[in-house]
Amino acid sequence: RDGVFKYYSDGMWKTSSSGKSVPIINPTTRKTYFKVQACTQEEVNKVMDTAKIAQKSWARTPLWKRAELLHKAAAVLKEHKAPIAECLVKEIAKPAKDAVTEVVRSGDLVSYCAEEGVRILGEGKFLVSDSFPGNERTKYCLTSKIPLGVVLAIPPFNYPVNLAVSKIAPALIAGNSLVLKPPTQGAVAALHMVHCFHLAGFPKGLISCVTGKGSEIGDFLTMHPGVNCISFTGGDTGIAISKKAGMIPLQMELGGKDACIILEDADLDLAAVNIVKGGFSYSGQRCTAVKVVLVMESVADALVEKVKAKVAKLTVGSPEDDCDITPVVTESSANFIEGLVMDAKQKGATFCQEYKREGNLIWPLLLDHVRPDMRIAWEEPFGPVLPVIRISSVEEGIHHCNASNFGLQGCIFTRDINKAILISDAMETGTVQINSAPARGPDHFPFQGLKDSGIGSQGITNSINMMTKIKSTVINLP
Ligand code: G3P
């Protein structure tokens, strides 16, 4: 624990020449729990060089062998679920049960990706020239999907394992090499996950994991000429990356303000369960969390009472005890959340519970009668605070949803499927859930954000395709 975890380069665990480390503060104790290397730009250069070399032979490795190694990594990951989950508990205060679920889900994602990769990368197209006017059948075109080269993966703190493998596995099955820059909070869980790939026997240099301060190596990584693709999940750093990155494919998932629209004919019990699950699991630190409830005035009192009753049953405390609500990831995050709460208080929101905070632990809070002039109506708290806005028409709900800069997911509760589809079509979000809370999983579903919520589309198949490009070979007949 007082050692500094090494970074992974060229198939070995190494200590940085910087002699410096980055502390990982346990959100619950607010004390340093782990330390990781503060890697230098020179070490990043070395990682990029080995990644480029290793990728050449990896691309020539038969597809079935690439898949076989991924299946091995998936199995090793699941065997190591307990120690990795323990890191998630200590580094990001993820409730113990959810932490194990994240690791198992990650193993399943890697395996599914191996199978899907064999399917979609194992086929191409065969085109003949005379299907286009003016041509004879003298040209045969064979297409295939080839790798991009070196993929830089930057996952967020809230899923440092699952949102890492959701980038790593597609990159590898497609024949790319992979450089991972994990979040500071969650870095040791990520390093342990990388060790599982190491144990599975991937070629040296194909996978690397560098840790360190964003201020020292962040831009250096994302603007590095050796990077051929960036897959980033996180906050608005992604917008900065998109402005600085070169002419390379970008896959970005940047957060959201997922709206939950409740119609007058909604099953309010079902809605209440999903609002509490969607709004408060992992203390609201999910990009797909329910972040604003837009409820028709006529059923608002009944809905708020049902949600209040369920919020009262949420357990609050340490992740080791599997509490529903655990400390948010950093003190600065807790302060940001508090700022939104105080703004709402000052502007007259109705507090359904007393606001309570101890260190990074914030008790779940439902704010009713929220109005559009309050920051919480638009900003993403990434915490256990949920605003309720009462609407007098469905159009008002759709308008509020579409007025947001975000467009990740949304959800609708109604018994009228026709109405649900029409509202879904009108919502400018990448996904709309009907009669359930927003969620990224299952991980083979497409997952994309519109507007400021991201670039490109994730989900296993889309990620594999995005990490390849098309190669055409044309046979010209005499
Ligand atoms: O916050 C990251 C986003 O991917 C959430 O995933 O599975 O909790 O909906 P999930």
TrEMBL record:
Predominant place of localization? cytoplasm
Catalytic EC class = oxidoreductase
> What EC number(s) has UniProt assigned to this enzyme?
1.2.1.9
- Signal peptide span per the entry? none
The chain positions of domain Aldehyde dehydrogenase read 13-472
UniProt keyword list: Cytoplasm, NADP, Oxidoreductase
* One GO MF term: lactaldehyde dehydrogenase (NAD+) activity
User: What chemistry does it catalyse, as a reaction equation?
Assistant: D-glyceraldehyde 3-phosphate + NADP(+) + H2O = (2R)-3-phosphoglycerate + NADPH + 2 H(+)
Active site (record annotation): 253
Query: Is Transcription included in the keywords of this UniProt record?
Result: no
Q: What InterPro entries does this protein map onto?
A: Ald_DH/histidinol_DH, Ald_DH_C, Ald_DH_CS_CYS, Ald_DH_CS_GLU, Ald_DH_N, Aldehyde_DH_dom, ALDH-related_metabolic_enz
Q: Which family does it belong to?
A: Belongs to the aldehyde dehydrogenase family.
Q: What is this protein called?
A: NADP-dependent glyceraldehyde-3-phosphate dehydrogenase
